[in-house]
Each structure stands twice: as structure tokens, then as C-alpha cells.
Amino acid sequence: MPYLKLNRACLAYGHVPLLDEADFQIDPGERVALIGRNGTGKSSLLAILAGLGKLDDGDVWTQPGIRVAYVPQEPPFDAELTVFQAVVGGMGENSRLLAEYHEISSHLAEPGADHDKLLARMQALQHDLESRGAWSCESQAEQAIARFSLDADARVGTLSGGQKKRLALAQALAVTPDVLLLDEPTNHLDIAAIEWLESLLIESRTTLLFITHDRRFLDRVATRIVELDRGHLASFPGSFSAYQQRKEAMLHEEALANARADKLLKEEEVWIRKGVEARRTRAVFRVQRLDRLRAERKARRDRLGSVKMQIDAGDKSGQLVAELVGVTKRFGDKTIVRDFSCRIQRGDKIGLIGPNGAGKTTLLRLILGELEPDAGTVRRGTKLEIAYFDQFRTQLDPEAMLADVISPGSEYVEVGGIRKHVIGYLGEFLFAPERARSPVKSLSGGERNRLLLARLFAKPANVLVLDEPTNDLDIETLELLEELLQDYGGTVFLVSHDRVFLDNVVTQTIAADGGGTWREYAGGYSDWADWRARQSQAATKADEDKPAVAEISKSRTERPAGTKLSWKEQRELEALPERIAALESEQKTLAQKLENPLLYQNQPQEAQQLAARLAAIDEELMGHLERWEALEARLV
Description:
Strand order of the largest sheet: 5-6-7-3-8-9
Number of helices: 20
Oligomer: single chain
């Protein structure tokens, strides 16, 4: 028996049908991904299934007795609540009693507390909680808080965006739902948190219906893809990759069918205009068919067009964009960047990876000259024209009209040397002409991101700084933006938690290693993740080898100082400088090859092989240097 079911569901926004007699159901154990273009009604559908919205027509059925939990894109929380109070907030009357009990427990530990009064109230609460069987709720809340690494006593208003998302997930899972509805669960989470959430959702075996544009999350978590397209819900069993192949074939077949129908309609229109005696019995059927074809063409809702983006790179910057040498930056007692050096050249596409709060934005500001380092030097290039995409969209005035955001005081914009009317330019980003005078506050999250991209690309820039540009964008727009950035001739700084987007765009990665340490790596996210996995394996092996190494060290230390080397060891010591020099020469050659951004576009497999060899050289050099030091120490 299904958990949730839609039957002939209808929902319209203005004159646009979001749901057009759509049918849907989700069965126990499924993990269903709901995808579709921005503005097609995915969030509205999820809210309706959660019982927070109504259909214009049709039925919503929920299996009696099941628990449904819903996490919206931006969960509303009272900033004054504690984390514990917020988590138990979804447990009905039990939540009030548990929140009060938890608060009294905290007050008891305070100096000068009225213990007699507090204990009396606590006793009364214990009685109420026991009679309701609510102690299990407290245990569930505490487990959820611990699982999401939250502080139960912290105020919601002090939490970051990522912590608030964790809080919303903890609140939903604390009630042990039968069905979990998630709207963009990866927004505001860093890569480590996203990977952790993937594993949690798979292992929990909770039935899921979720909206996301994170393609790797889709591929790993979803067991079925449901696409909302032109008011209808189409189901595709299997992974997201399988959906993409099948969808491409379906769109090709649809285009052919539409072309045949349009050709037939055109032929019948020509026939009717010839003035043929259509009243003759034998011709009546052709008139009727023409009327039917006209009605079908009018009713057909063509697939939404694609965004038509282009970037004007303007004048070339100097070859050097920025060079950092031994840069350190602190805020109070916290070191955000520690002794970091790198050189960034024109055409580099840099991805910045790190947990929330690691200092990615701070490092960007140091590179671009918005902050000065506490130690070290930053040398910046010439002729830099910088365009900045802000993940918080602070550049957008909610009251401003769309046209004024793009071109204040003028009806035209010039992009790539071509003058365009602002309404036509907005149309290239899928904004209808009638919306050009609408305020920014009327837009969805994905539409605001599209508007910000339109504003960004309306001016020439040879350096693009993109801080989480992928949030809320639909998959088709993401893929187009990837292609655009791949072909862009300027320099790109990209902060993103979208792993596929990073892999497809960046040529090198700067990643946080903790404690203010940052390292530079060739390639994208997968190259960095592979390197990290190899390092972890090497560390594990080193731990396993420690007893043997300790025994060898002991035997060495027991030798008297000045012990002579064997003939074989002497030859080995003499050969080490030449081996080290050869490896360093190869290392320099490979690094120069990997600095070429065209390598990643034209020969991605070779780039991966070179990056792997570069990592292997690092390990070989370390081994040779350690061996050299050990052999020379025995000659002392």
C-alpha cells in the first residue's frame, strides 16, 4: 500500500498550470527525487504532500497513521529558542513539556537558583511526561541532536546557515517519520556534511521524497526519478544517470512528433485557404480535422526554452593575476590562513574547498585585495576587471524591478559588443516580458540566482568570483553555466559544494587542511578526494607498520655511533642525490604541464594521469629524503 498518493491533481499559478491532472504515489522504502526546471511547482507540490498547501482540484491521500516530516528550503525557527526546544517543537504537547523540563534542568546548575521551586516543578513535569509516555521523545531528540553534532543549549539565532539546516533535519528525524520530505537538503551544507547526509539517508532506510539539483547526491541517494514538466509527473525508475539517457531519447521522439503535427497543420491551413467547397460531405472531415489540429497545437505546452547565457571577458588582464608568499591572516586568536603561498595566472580556474567557517571567503578577499594579510606578501596583477557573484544575493534590492537590476536608468545593455533591449536580455534568462517590471521579492530562489547571473554577465569582466552560484539553479541551467565557464577566457574563482560542478569547471583546487593550513592541488574535486583517500590509506598503513618500525629503530639505536655503512648502503647513499634531482626535475616539468588549462579541456585523462604521477613523486621524494637522512646519521 502506498504511503502518499496524488490523483488527477490540478494546481495553477496565474494562468500557468503547475499540476495538470497529475498522478503520483510513493511506496514504502523508496527514495524518490523530484526534479524539474525552476518555477515548475516542485516546492508547492512538496508542501501540499506535507499538508501545508491545497490543490485547486484532485485528491491527496495519505495512509492513515503514518508520520510525515517536512524540511522546507529555509526552515522557519524562532531565534530565541534553544536547539533542544526547536528539535522537540514537532512533537505536539510533548514538545512543550520536554522543552520546559530541559530548561529547568539547565537552571538547576546555575548559581543562586531556587532549587526547591525548580525541583517541585520538575517533579510535576516528570509525572506529566510519564503519564504521556514522552520520555522516549526526549531520548529521540537527544539522539538526533548528537547525530547532527549540535549544541542542545545553543540559541537558534547564533547558528550558521549550515547549522540551521542540520537543525531542521534533526527536528524532522527526531519524530522517526515514515516519510521524509526534503526541499533542497544540501543547500548551506559543506561537502563533508553532504557526503555524511547521503550515507545517513541511505542507511536509515526512511522513505524519501526530495528535491535537489546536486547531481552526485541524486545519483547516490535516489532509487527513482520523478520529473515535473509542463504540469505532468513522469516517473523514471533507477539512477539519475539512467534517467538522463532515457530523457534524451524521449525529447528526441517528442520533437519529431511535434514536427510531424506542425507539418500536417500547415498543409491543412493551405488547403482551407484555397476556397475549396468545404461544405461537401467528403471534405467535412478535413475541416473537422483542421479544427482538432488547431486545438491540439494551442493546448500543447512547448518545453521551456534554455537560458542563453554569454560572458564578455573584456580586455585581457596581465599574465599574473595574484601571487601570495607566506600569507597569514588572523581574526582574534583564530588563524584563518597560515603561511600560504600560491601563484595564480590568467585563465586559471580555481576551486576553493573547505568546511563552512574554514575561511574560503577570507582567502578570496586576500587574493583580490579586499583584505591585507597580517604577515607575508600579496602581489596582484594589472588590468583586473572583477565581477562578483554573492551567495547571499545582497546585491539584489528586494523592492527593485528586474529591469532596473540589470540596467538602472537605461532600457539597453551591451553584452559582447551587441546592444540588447533589457526585456529581450531578461528573456534570454527565461524571464517573460511581463515580469520585467516585477519586484525582485516576487522571485523564487532559483530565479534570483538567474537574475544575479544576468546582472553579472551584463558587464565585461576578466575575473569572475562565484560564491555558491549553483544553489537553487535547475540542472539544465547548471550544465549550461558549466559549458560557459569552460569556454571563458578569463580567470575564475569558484566556491561551491557541488562536486560535479567543481569537477567540470576547475583546473586546480585550493583546499583547507585545518588549522588555517591551505594546500593547492591540480584538478577538481575528485582529484583532491582521490589524493586525500591515498593519504588516509598511507596513514593507516603507517600505523600498522609502527611496531616493525619501532623494532628497526631500536636495533639502529643500539649500534655504536659512527658505525660504517656496508658497501651496498654506501653505493645507495651516493646515488640518492642524483635520484632526488631527477625526481625534482620531473616534478617541475609535470607542474608546468598541469598549469595549462587547455590540458583539462582537451585531454582530461592525461591530466588525471599527470596529477597522479605528481602525487606519487611527492611520496617518492619524501622516502628518498628520509632514507638519505637515516644513512648519513649513521656516519656521524
